[in-house]
Amino acid sequence: MDIKEILENSKDRFAALDEAWSNNGYFHYELEGEKKVAQMTIAEAITTTDAPFLFPKVIARTVEEAIEPNQLVVPLLAEVRIDSRSIEIPALGAMQAHDIGEGMPYPEEELPYATRVEGKVIKRGLRVAFTDEMIADSMWDLMGLYLRAAGRALARRKEKVAQERFWERAEEVFTNVPSSATWETTGEDVSGDANGTYTLNDLIDMIAALVADERTFTHMMMHPLAWTIFAKDPVIRNFQIYGNRGVYEGQLVGGSKPAGRDWFDQSTVVNQFAGSAWPWIPQMILTPFINFSTKAISGGTSGSFTDVYAIDVNDLGAVLQREDVGTEDFRDPQKDIENVKIRERYDIVVYGVDNIKMAKDVRVAENFKTP
User: Fold this and answer.
1) How far apart are CA 333 and CA 294, in angstroms?
2) Strand 317-332 vs strand 78-81: parallel, antiparallel, or unpaired?
């Protein structure tokens, strides 16, 4: 029995093709009650009767499997399925609950509409090309490598779009202006002069802004290079000592390693929030898609700048998904290339400014401000 007959008689042809993708063409099937293993070529796979329907699903499945582990910000958002190209969503404030006495009516609460946010769904995707030689030689692994790379590219694009929406909708608690050396964040250089860096005190003020809007501090988000600077903040290091936590003792202000303390604890920056005097235990999100650029500073110098966020992920926003990851193939006969278009249709909206507080244009440099 040849491969085509095996697939035609298979109860689950999709499962067979899916297994072949990840096993260099090998798949399991059952014949007369006996389990067997066979290997198909790519040419055999794409010429079966159901190939036009099943093969795009198999390719999309491979792409989606590469997307899921590469998203940090998108999972914080709700998913909303829509059938139109655009939708207008009200940005809601917080509703109020009331005490109700015995026999008393329930007071009516209206949704406090603030603004309206419009989401416009567009296509986002890329094209992957497979040569005739790759297909003829059944290079399953190489084609799978291409498709997983495409999936990661889609994931990065979605993360980037989400981050752009965060930046557009965030409330600026601190706004630094590098061009005029105007610093609202409280960091200082080694000489004690303000230098626009971010401190633990600044984070506390951002948390206070969240709480004042009846929100909860659930996540802190910043660029990975900004985190390395924040982790070395002198106030944080001393907080660790007096909070009886593991610390970066090699960075301690004016002293050696205290007795009974570890030299390094990789969870120290998050663990500091778990102290009995600290009411929040946030999650730390480090993403390279946050704004990070070099800007000129008044006085003829320049520096690296980024943004830092304090977030409440409850009712934060939504991914407006019109079309999941899908594929479409077309041939280029002049180059003997089989092209596969991979796309999805969506937009991302953030409901309002209450959930996201931002320190804008934080300088990425060492902060020497001591307690």
Assistant:
1) 46
2) parallel
